[in-house]
Design goal:
Blueprint: E1 21-24, H1 28-32, H2 51-59, H3 63-75, H4 86-118, E2 121-126, E3 129-134, E4 143-147, E5 155-161, E6 167-171, H5 173-176, E7 181-185, H6 188-191, H7 196-200, E8 205-208, E9 220-224, E10 227-231, E11 236-237, E12 242-244, E13 248-255, H8 261-266, H9 275-308, H10 326-341, H11 348-366, E14 380-381, E15 393-398, E16 405-416, E17 419-421, H12 458-465, H13 469-480, E18 497-505, H14 509-518, E19 522-526, H15 531-540, E20 550-554, H16 559-575, E21 579-581, E22 584-585, H17 586-589, E23 606-611, H18 612-618, H19 624-632, E24 636-640, H20 644-657, E25 661-666, H21 672-677, E26 680-684, H22 691-695, E27 698-700, H23 705-743, H24 756-766, H25 768-777, H26 783-788, H27 794-797, H28 804-831, H29 843-865, H30 871-891, H31 894-899, H32 909-913, H33 917-944, H34 948-965, H35 989-995, H36 1003-1015, H37 1017-1024
Parallel strand pairs: 15-19, 15-25, 19-24, 20-23, 23-24, 25-26, 26-27
Antiparallel strand pairs: 1-8, 2-3, 2-4, 4-13, 5-11, 5-13, 6-7, 6-12, 8-9, 9-10, 14-27, 16-17, 16-18, 21-22
Helix pairs in contact: 2-4, 3-4, 4-24, 9-10, 11-23, 11-25, 14-23, 23-25, 23-28, 23-29, 25-30, 28-29, 28-33, 29-30, 29-33
InterPro entries: ATPase_P-typ_P_site (IPR018303), ATPase_P-typ_TM_dom_sf (IPR023298), ATPase_P-typ_transduc_dom_A_sf (IPR008250), HAD-like_sf (IPR036412), HAD_sf (IPR023214), P-type_ATPase_IV (IPR006539), P-type_ATPase_N (IPR032631), P_typ_ATPase (IPR001757)
EC number: 7.6.2.1
Catalytic activity: ATP + H2O + phospholipidSide 1 = ADP + phosphate + phospholipidSide 2
């Protein structure tokens, strides 16, 4: 994917690695000799001069583009060219142009973003006066002035401020995701440098650590006036922070641009590819091997034919001048057939894939159900290359604060001098529940009061109004305190009171987690919060429930302790028999001889909680597999007190050892590494800045939208892409293999069956739009059913809809179609005659018949494959057929012949051939014989072995018919038609559905029925995957 705000600076890779950083104030000449990075941010890749050469170089890094360039070069060689060069150059130029426009557009927005950041203004002390400078012109060693609510331009050493003792207050949400204020303080020796004249004379030198990504640590020293003053993180203002509640401050630039800690934490954006992309690369290599094999077979045939037969016809079929033997003729024939047969992998495949992905991205952007009205924030697909992988996610790694919770602290209760405020009691002295409480306390007398704040206990306000000294002292200290001290440091202090605040869960979080769990998606929470808070949130969001047998807590401080705790957890899980479904226990269902791992042995009623210091040991090379095996066997995993780096390491561990798609979701800069490491990164646009969003592949404002992103958009994208690829390979093998069969009847001379215009237009005009429409709009079930039956998500996780097996099935179907499309017309034409008694067989009439049969067969096939009909599908399918006939008749017309007599020689052939009933009967016979086995197979599959989506579609059809039966039909009302319904007439569905009192089938009931009907293949396949943990019986989602 592209570098979404990757925020790179000018490359510093040429500089030797720094051992220490030296920066002298007000001395640019001294600092420049170290060649430190400037403060300029550069995320763009091109400029006007470099765009064309660099972009073309990048595009030809793709194997497919290089392959088609090689074919184009072959076609320019007269001795081997069997097709005109434009059959390859037109689609190649189209692909390169479309990709170049897309890359140029992306880079334009990167330039725009760079300019916006780099052109921000900053006050820099130059030659004794403050001057306005752009951020990109700020250098290491400069002294800059910040004012209240301004962003910090670079990593600064705080010199002085408007506050007493050199204090200043900053907000670090962009860095660590925390919205509370933090205090920074200048060292005493510089805190008095408040006026410009004294700062202009300041020549202190900072010697410190080299650039690194540690946000909470800094070590260095200031050398000034022959003295050394130690520096710590408390003296630093980092880029990305915002100055708050401080009128002004001055700082010395220590790190700039890519060397700042914010940029160091952003990491390098990894190029993300989907599993389908990787599979396609493998399949293209296989197809190329198959193409070479076909070329070799036909070349050998050509050599034999020329040696045995061709030599007898040298008088009127002489060899070319360069050909001096049958062997060399076969060699040239090989390259000719490589050109002819290259359409098994047409370049239009890659264009179509990108167009479909772009369409899916727009559907996400336009989804009103993922639009947050409160924040006026839509969902955004920030990349177009990962959509189908959203339908294959097995592991979700989530931050807690701001992702699962609102990151808004609500004041609920407090205790002052031992008295509790916040609860409300009735007249009998019983605690009143929320629904029984009176009206909240009226704060309208205070014009500064927050109207959204609700508090139910009036006694606290009464204590304030009466002037209670303890209450006033409590609130005074609460409002002024900016430091939290740990309990062990609270010596010789008086405890005035305590507060109870709540960071509430976001709306819909428990329901989302429950639904994703039913879809066999495992959710791990990775948080920097303490263990108690993380576990409480786990219970609140239903990750931890009463069904959990035991929660294993790993808190060891040494390697041995952590290893022992993990070992005991695995032993407990192995020793306890747990029902895994159908009344069998683990031991009954899986014999001990086949227990290859703990993952196969447990049913998943456990949870694991591990602390950051323990996780550091668990992630070591000799223990990571033990930790992974234990964690994957648990229903829920919570990692607390973890660093940003540990979050990324956990994600990388699962990616490395599990054949599963991972998704990371977070909202703070401390989640950026995790988001970039996962297969898919999702940013929450919340309270904690935009760093997570900038680094993400997808973004929205609330966690609950994740269920719709995965179960609706992700599942549909995966389904559509798989159906598109299956059909695309089918239609191209059906098209191309006809040339192979024809080779045996034309002396292996590399003569094409179709004319060159049909070959050029087949993939870019005649069959492109119908398959695009299916790839963009197709559905198997409506969005409501996708959410209602989360088990529908599992085929994507198991990669069932497009894999090597499905690929071989679709190419076998294509080869079968090519055999019929070629040999049926060939057999008919061998004996058939025209209406006037003349011989029907001639090359061009045969070509027209075969081409027409092929176009009609593949059009009918896509009609069968389409599961959701729209007006666009109808228009594209039948419109493409109409365009084919229009172009066919035009190319065989008198007008084109008169204008281009050398190009369009066969005047009136199409009109004459298609006027013969025999030709139409041949086309009809070919179509029926090609399509009938497909219809029969799908009918039998739906009758004998329906999958879950078939069952859901049928239940929907039955519900619709019952609803129509019980109400008056509305005139003019139409509904989408689904081609799958026509074959779903098997007995048993209706009885099951009709027998239920409630027409809404639960996920458990429907999944169970599908299994009884022969669809237990999902569970069978899941058991075969050694790396997949057992899962508990599915439960219907209530609510």
């Amino acid at each position: 994917s592209s570098d979404p705000g990757g925020l790179r600076g000018h490359s510093a890779s040429k500089r030797p690695p720094e051992e220490e950083r030296r920066a002298r104030a007000n001395d640019r000449e001294y600092n420049e000799k170290f060649q430190y990075a400037s403060n300029c941010i550069k995320t763009s890749k091109y400029n006007i001069l470099t765009f064309l050469p660099v972009n073309l170089f990048e595009q030809f890094q793709e194997v497919a583009n290089t392959y088609f360039l090689f074919l184009l070069i072959l076609q320019l060689i007269p001795q081997v060219s069997s097709l005109s060069w434009f059959t390859t150059i037109v689609p190649l130029v189209l692909v390169l142009a479309i990709t170049a426009v897309k890359d140029a557009t992306d880079d334009y927005f990167r330039h725009k973003s760079d300019n916006q950041v780099n052109n921000r203004q900053s006050q820099v002390l130059i030659d004794g006066s403050l001057q306005q400078e752009q951020w990109m012109n700020v250098r290491v060693g400069d002294i800059i002035k910040l004012e209240n609510n301004q962003f910090v331009a670079a990593d600064l050493l705080l010199l002085s401020s408007s506050e007493p003792h050199g204090l200043c207050y900053i907000e670090t949400a962009e860095l660590d995701g925390e919205t509370n204020m933090k205090v920074r303080q200048a060292i005493p020796v510089t805190s008095e440098l408040g006026d410009i004249s004294r700062l202009a004379k300041f020549d202190g030198e900072v010697v410190c650590e080299p650039p690194n990504n540690k946000l909470d640590k800094f070590s260095g020293a200031l050398y000034w006036k022959e003295s050394k003053f130690p520096l710590s993180n408390q003296n630093m203002l980092l880029r990305g922070c915002v100055l708050r509640n401080t009128e002004w401050c001055f700082g010395l630039v220590v790190f700039a641009g890519p060397d700042t800690k914010l940029m160091q934490n952003s990491g390098r954006t990894k190029f993300k590819r989907t599993s389908i992309d990787r599979l396609m690369n493998t399949l293209v290599l296989w197809i190329f091997g198959f193409l070479v094999c076909m070329g070799v077979i036909l070349a050998i045939g050509n050599a034999i034919w020329e040696h045995e037969v061709g030599t007898r016809f040298q008088v009127y079929l002489p060899w070319d001048e360069a050909v001096d033997s049958a062997f060399f003729s076969g060699f040239l024939s090989f390259w000719s057939y490589i050109i002819i047969l290259n359409t098994v992998v047409p370049i239009s495949l890659y264009v179509s894939v990108e167009v479909i992905r772009l369409g899916h991205s727009y559907f996400i952007n336009w989804d009103r159900k993922m639009f947050c009205v409160k924040k006026q924030t839509p969902a955004e697909a920030r990349t177009t290359t990962l959509n189908e992988e959203l339908g294959q996610v097995e592991y979700v790694f989530s931050d807690k604060t701001g992702t699962l919770t609102q990151n808004v602290m609500v004041f609920h209760k407090c205790s002052v001098r031992g008295r509790s405020y916040g609860d409300v009691f009735d007249v009998l002295g019983h605690k009143a529940e929320l629904g029984e409480r009176p009206q909240p306390v009226d704060f309208s007398f205070n014009p500064l009061a927050d109207k959204k704040f609700l508090f139910w206990d009036p006694t606290l306000l009464e204590a304030v109004k009466m002037g209670d000294p303890h209450t006033h002292e409590f609130f005074r200290l609460l409002s002024l305190c900016h430091t939290v001290m740990s309990e062990e440091k609270n010596e010789d202090l008086q405890l005035l009171g305590a507060t109870a605040i709540e960071d509430r869960l976001q709306q819909g979080v428990p329901e989302t987690i429950a639904l994703l769990t039913l879809a066999n998606i495992k959710i791990w929470v990775l948080t920097g919060d303490k263990q108690e808070t993380a576990v409480n949130i786990g219970y609140s969001c239903k990750m931890l429930t009463d069904d959990v047998t035991e929660v294993f807590v790993v808190t060891g401080h040494t390697v041995l302790e952590v290893r022992e705790e993990l070992r005991k957890a695995r032993e407990k899980m192995m020793d306890s028999p747990h029902t895994v479904g159908n009344g069998f226990t683990c031991q009954e269902k899986r014999p001990s001889s086949k227990l290859t791992s703990v993952l196969e042995a447990v049913a998943g009623e456990y949870a694991l909680v591990i602390n950051g210091h323990s996780l550091a040991h668990a992630l070591e090379a000799d223990m990571e597999l033990e930790f992974l095996e234990t964690a994957c066997a648990c229903k829920a995993v919570i990692c607390c007190r973890v660093t940003p780096l540990q979050k990324a390491q956990v994600v990388e561990l699962v990616k490395k050892h599990k054949k599963a798609v991972t998704l990371a979701i977070g909202d703070g800069a401390n989640d950026v590494s995790m988001i970039k490491t996962a297969h898919i990164g999702v940013g929450i646009s919340g309270q904690e800045g935009i760093q997570a969003v900038l680094a993400s592949d997808y973004s929205f404002s609330q966690f609950k939208f994740l269920q719709r992103l995965l179960l609706v958009h992700g599942r549909w994208s995966y389904l559509r892409m798989c159906k598109f690829l299956c059909y695309f390979f089918y239609k191209n093998f059906a098209f191309t293999m006809v040339h192979f069969w024809f080779g045996f009847f034309c002396g292996f001379s590399a003569q094409t069956v179709y004319d060159q215009y049909f070959i050029t237009l087949y993939n870019i005009v005649y069959t492109s739009l119908p398959v695009l429409a299916m790839g963009v709009f197709d559905q198997d079930v409506p969005e409501q059913r996708s959410m209602e039956y989360p088990k529908l998500y599992e085929p994507g996780q198991l990669n069932l809809l497009f894999n090597k097996r499905e690929f071989f099935i679709c190419i076998a179907q294509g080869i079968y179609a090519s055999v019929l499309v070629f040999f049926l017309p060939y057999g008919v034409f061998a004996e058939a005659a025209r209406d006037d008694g003349a011989q029907l067989a001639d090359y061009q009439s045969f070509a027209v018949t075969v081409a027409t049969s092929l176009v009609i067969v593949v059009s009918v096939q896509i009609g069968l494959d389409t599961g959701y009909w729209t007006a666009i599908n109808h228009f594209f399918i039948w419109g493409s057929l109409a365009v084919y006939f229009a172009i066919l008749f035009a190319m065989h017309s008198d007008g084109l012949f008169r204008m281009f007599p050398n190009q369009f020689r066969f005047v009136g052939n199409a009109q004459s051939s298609l006027a013969q009933p025999t030709v139409w009967l041949t086309i009809a016979l070919t179509t029926v014989v090609c399509i009938l086995p497909v219809v029969a197979f799908r009918f039998l599959k739906l009758s004998l072995k329906p999958d879950l989506s078939d069952t859901v579609r049928y239940s929907q059809l039955v519900r619709k018919k019952r609803a129509q039966h019980h109400r008056t039909r509305r005139p003019g009302r139409t509904s989408s038609r689904r081609s799958g319904y026509a074959f779903a007439h098997q007995e048993g569905f209706g009885e099951l559905i009709m027998s239920g009192k409630n027409m809404r089938l639960s996920s458990l009931g429907l999944a169970g029925f599908a299994t009884r009907s022969g669809s237990g293949w999902i569970e069978s396949l899941r058991r075969k995957r050694s790396d997949s943990p057992g899962s508990p019986p599915d439960k219907p989602l209530k609510g």
